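Posting for a labmate who doesn't have an account.
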Amino acid sequence: MPARGGARRLQWLLVFAACSSPIVKSLVDALTGNLGANPIERILNRLGYTTLVFLLLALVPTAVQIATGWSGLLRYRRMLGLFAFLYALLHFTTYALLDQGLDLHAIVQDVVKRKFITVGMLALALLVPLALTSSDWAVRRLGFVRWKRLHRLVYAAALAGVVHFVWRVKADLREPLLFAAALAILLAVRVASWALGPARRRAPLHAPPAA
């Protein structure tokens, strides 16, 4: 129905605007000088934090569907995942361009010697194939089963992102541990669905008559 289609487009635009708002805020803060004494570090931390938020948000629609059967959030899963990749890419670009001045030797040394950067690069690398295969064309090309298996890498990327955050923070671990707890819940829901899947497939279609 036209009205329903219009409402869905409006919802999509509102979600898109909300996903874009961290970029807008960072640009406004940069233009108005509201990034503090160390603007590069501020932007780096903000982009890294936002990346992790969107990575976990991208896992929520599937968890909600598994737990409740409601699939209404699935239409936003791709957008959330692509925004997670975008913020991860901006996080890395800020590090490589503004923090390291595109000094490839220094970047490689950082990746090799600093374990939180190593695992952060792993998270970004895991997101690349997911972003490149996010289209309907890629689903058709790979086949749904192979595509679905590939996109389970998002859980590994989220885990690497949480570890990156935990190892990056040296003192107050409250926020990293909150992310770790949220990811543990999302993973538990997913693992439970995998564990119950074979049992559901083996279960009879109709319950046997009572004795």
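Reply:
Got it, the structure tokens are right above this. The chain has a mean pLDDT of 90.
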